[in-house]
Amino acid sequence: MVAYDKPHKTFEQQLALLVERGMTYRDHSYVLSSLKRIGYYRLSGYTYPFRVLDDGGGRKDEFIEGASVEAAIELHDFDVKLRSVLLAGLESFELALRTQIAYALGKRDTYGHLDPYGSLDSVACDATIGDSSKSHYDRWLEKYESRCEGAEKEDFVKHFKEKYDGRLPIWAATEVMDLGGVVRLYGFLLREDRVRISRNFGPRREPDFRAWTKSLNLLRNHCAHGDRVWNRSFTYTLPDFVEPHIDPRLSHLAGGTQITRRKIYALAAVLASSLIHIDPYSNWPRAFATQAKKLPGVPQVATFHTMGFPTDWQDLDLWKHQPTSRTR
């Protein structure tokens, strides 16, 4: 195993290295200040597509003709704003999913989330990974209890500890869970509850929606941690979009490849469809489309295709959704 031995470089030296490898720039002060706020390593994720392809399909250290530092910075800044819009939509999705779970589970038992053999699917709760002695539910419960401890100073948590036995009813419990915890709890619900919830978000096949929740949770984590999303291929592949089990506004994704179902466009599309179903007043699809249209014009690398966007995406009904008018 070889130790990493590359020397530390000043910001000026980092810029000089980019130039040495073929990048150009127009404004020295601007690109230097951008390196100071972004960092060379993070910016390299946006300069990588500008590298020359080698015969094996990999990338050389040298950059293609016309590559500029400003173009890479534009891509980075576009990605920051895209993540911000995505986070707003994911926050709305998370809140709606919390509400739907609390409503469905609360009808069964005030403390249904603590009842794996009555209010939840015991088979799903008891499942384990490999030879692990802990079930999925036990792992979830540990994280949930840790979240409760971390929220002890919250007024609503103190209220239930001081006035009652300390257990949070499901409608309060979901407030201390992160999206990952909410998604895992959804997977523990009885099938009839999952089906009822999934149809409120659009899909006619519950397993499709369950897969959506996992992918959207992963997307949320990437966005929250500031990870690049504009041309990322995500870990989870969304299931096939099969008509008539999907929102007609998603029919343009039917027959898509696994590659496109792992790109940001497909994830944004299922998020948009879900929000339209759960909240007809949502303006998020238009907000996302407005930001996506601002993709910098760098034809060598920054194409909508690299994000999985279909050619005619701007003309699709999904992104032209008119929020239901509110009665004043």
Protein model, in words:
The chain has 328 residues and is mainly α. The chain has two domains: 11-67, no CATH class; 76-320, no CATH class. It contains 13 helices and two strands; from the N terminus they run αααββαααααααααα. It has helices spanning 11-20, 28-38, 40-47, 69-108, 122-126, 136-150, 155-163, 170-173, 179-188, 191-200, 206-224, 264-278, 284-292, and strands spanning 51-53, 59-63. The chain has a two-stranded antiparallel ribbon with strand order 1-2. Strand 1 and strand 2 (59-63) form a beta hairpin. Helix 1 crosses helix 2 (28-38) and helix 6 packs antiparallel against helix 9. It starts with 10 loop residues before the first helix and ends in a 36-residue tail after the last helix.
Supply database-style keywords.
328 residues; two-stranded antiparallel ribbon; 13 helices; 50% helix; globular
In short:
The chain is mainly alpha-helical and 328 residues long. It folds into two domains: 57 residues, no CATH class; 245 residues, no CATH class. A hairpin with a 5-residue loop joins strand 1 and strand 2.
Mean pLDDT value: 91
Query: How many angstroms does the end-to-end distance come to?
Result: 69 Å
Count of helical segments? 13
Biggest sheet, open or closed, and with what strands and sense?
2 strands, antiparallel
Helix content: 40-55%
Going by helix content, strand content and strand pairing, the class is mainly alpha
Number of strands: 2
Number of domains: 2
Outline type: globular
Low-confidence stretches: none
Question: β content, as a range?
Answer: under 5%
